[in-house]
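ugh finaly. both done.
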Amino acid sequence: MLDEVRKGIAEGARLVLGSDRKRTDGLYVDPVVFVDVDQHSRLAQHEIFGPVLSVRCRRPACAEGGTRT
């Protein structure tokens, strides 16, 4: 799963919650939230088994780099 998080970062998604590191308290990873996920990226196209949320904007203004609401 950590590899998937790292691939998401490498593909340009912005990590806003969590990290790409394993926890040391017995749990595997923190929940992870990505924004600005491209629709053709691995994060958008594949199911990741873990606490991962990918947010994509579908409004035209977002696709053009406008303000998200």
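ok and the 2nd:
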Amino acid sequence: MSTTVMRFGRSTASVPEARAFARGVLRNACAHFLDDVLVCVSELATNAVRHGVPVGGAFLIKIEADDQRVRVECHDANRRRPRVRHPADDDQHGRGLLLVEAISSRWGVGDRPFGKYVWFELDLRPPADEADRPSRLLGTLVGGSKVEGTVELDVPGQGVVVVRTGQADVPALLRTYANRRVAAEVDALNGPSPVGRERQRRQLLGLSLHED
């Protein structure tokens, strides 16, 4: 397994720099999943800049990769552990870890002597036509983000599920379906994690009211 590390300063410019660093490291290692990795790197770097790095300090991105998985760690000097939030429909922030949870195979937080590190792992599976299959989610549309291009469905037995909408108009979807029971047709690439949690990368194909 190869390991690459880089430090970044407490600046908003460090977020795209961290993305560029990850892209350069992983461009050939996980081309099919690179966009997923970069979204998660952006979220961890943004949280570090906003909440984890003191003035004049820095955060560290550590990337490990082999042919089975990618692991990314974001180290900072704040020992306060982040938590997944479920923001209101009109909030423009607070969805970072919700996205990381939805996209990654697994994630967590570890302690350092003078801070913490937030990590995620992504299992690498070559795309196969038989793996891509449409599926149906039944739940309540509880939120969404125009910025991220996602909607959030509260699905019984699964909790809040983040679904990418592509070119769909998120505000229009929320005006029509918010807090209503819906049926979402999604394109999903599935893969089980070692701890038994199913990782799903979902793209919205269609949305309609669900009639019980």
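summary for the 2nd one i guess: The beta strands are 2-9, 58-65, 69-76, 106-112, 115-123, 132-145, 150-155, 159-164, 181-192, 198-209.
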